[in-house]
Amino acid sequence: MNGPEQPSIPARKRGDDRIDVLCVDDGPDVADATALGLGRESDRFVVETATDPSEGLDVLRAGDVDCVVSEHRMTGTSGLDFPIAVREQYPHLPIVLFARKEGGDVGGEAIPGGVTDCSRKKAGTAQYAVLAERVEDAVEEARDRDRLERTCRWFRTLAERSSALLLVVDENGTVVYRSGTNDPVLGTAPGETVGSHVFEEFVHPDDRGRASDRFDRLANDPDVDTTRLEFRAEDADGSWRQVEATASDRRDTLVEGFVVTIRDITDLKERERQFETLHEASQELMGAVTEPEIAAVTADAAENVLGYANTTVRLYDEAAGVLRTVTATEGSVSQAGERPDYDVDGDTPAARVFTSGEPEIYHDLTEVGDGYDRGGLVSGMYLPIGEHGVMSMGGTTTDAFGETDQRVVGVLAKLAAEALTRVTAATELRHKNERLDEEREKVAAEREKLTLLNRVLRHHVLNGMAVVAGHAESGKARADPELRSELDVITDRVEDVVAFVENVRVFIDRIAGEGDRPLEAMDLARALEDGLDAARGGRSTTIAGQVPGDVYVMADELLPKAFEPLLANVLDHEEGNEQVAVSVDTGTDTVTVAIEGDGGSVPREAGADPFEWDPWHSSNPAGGVDLSLAATIVEQYGGSIRAETDEPGKAVFRVELPRAV
Asked: What is the DSSP-derived secondary structure letter of residue 17?
């Protein structure tokens, strides 16, 4: 009847309220009666029967059973053979003996066999109530014990596998329990820990007073059940580690002491120190004004603040298409020699990181295979400095860098990128301002010239022409008809000169920034008529086509002068024509005026813009001023003007103006 060695009871899959019972009795009627009786006592019971020990063991192997109810003696067995066999295979399974013997005799014989409890068979149904109570008690006790054992195993496994050191300390501060066979924090052996005083064994002398005060308060203040503190603890190598201890008062539990969890925070404290020190480096970076200076500060911070001795900073040289080595620490140069520049399009870690913008860690640089000699540097970490370059760190062992290193150095790389962005923006702004200053100086000089020219035109040319015109008119009164005719020619030419000078003066006022006037809604049809009046020169020419009378544009009183030279150009090339074709196209925001003429052309010199007046380089210094003035006026309205001569013999001027709403 021996079965498998000490199998454990499977974890239950049913609810705790149900109780599965195996009733074993060599009397089938008795077994069935027992099952029926238990079922009547409580609907918790689910009873299966067996009539011999072998069948009973088969049932146990087949499924979940919470309790065995067994007859004391069965045919073919002696004494407690069946309960003993069950106990050997299922050491934690409750067994209740339901026997014909007197209770005292049964109990004395049953206990050595590992029977959990006994119940006497009697006449009537009352015996089943007693049996049901004892089965329930046995099962609940077994379940409680199982839950407790599982909980203990869970906590024990958790403690054994934790990266922290778990201690149980009594009221005197003596260690009575320590988790694990190996100390994950200090590297001590169990014999060096259990039985020692927690403060004298672990805590740095300068920290013992503070730690002891915290422990005393935890032990004596009923309002405090947990305390946390940091201190220095000595490891197995005699070094001092920064640790954090959390102590909880568990004297009122099975622990009967204080649970102390100790974890190593040395690296965490070092990272905190690094981040604090990086703040100082960020101030230096913000004070740097050149790219080489930023690169030097970055490399120095990587080496002396973060502890990465083999650091190289490369910045992108757009003109050369390379990541140029700007600075490298002494450690980097001594380990790998002078660090090279890398082509941005090359197959190197630095180029890939710069292109992708994602950091990369190489645990073994010999696997890179890019042909570059890195000397004693075995592993490497590369991080992008924004869009400005790449910083790299080398290690003299494999797997020298991890995600924590990447995060810490990433902060420095971002600070460097921000500083470089600021310097780049400041440099571009400075160059832009320098160009603007140069342009302003040029514009100021040109304005000064134009202002002087305007003054000359006003005070000398116009005044001179007024004197000439006055003398011509005076001479006409005394001259004979032939001389009077010649004086009329002088008068006409004087008027032409005055008109020309007046246009030049207005043109100069506009391009020199003088005479600017606010824009207002102007009647387009009226402006075209006024422009035609000035352009027709005594001719009876009219506008062909219907110009809408309700169209207004944003302009000023010089709008007719914008149309006058365009209309005059068409009329001058269409002698005898009594009409000039004008059409108006109104859009939502703009109005386009087209002025067309057959047989005309746009006056221009080879390669020149007809609306650009250049008296200093033109073969006809006076030519083009009228059209240039028109363009200047229209552009100051926010509009545009262009000339088209796509069809042979046809000139078309298109003027686009902002529509007044």
From this structure: T
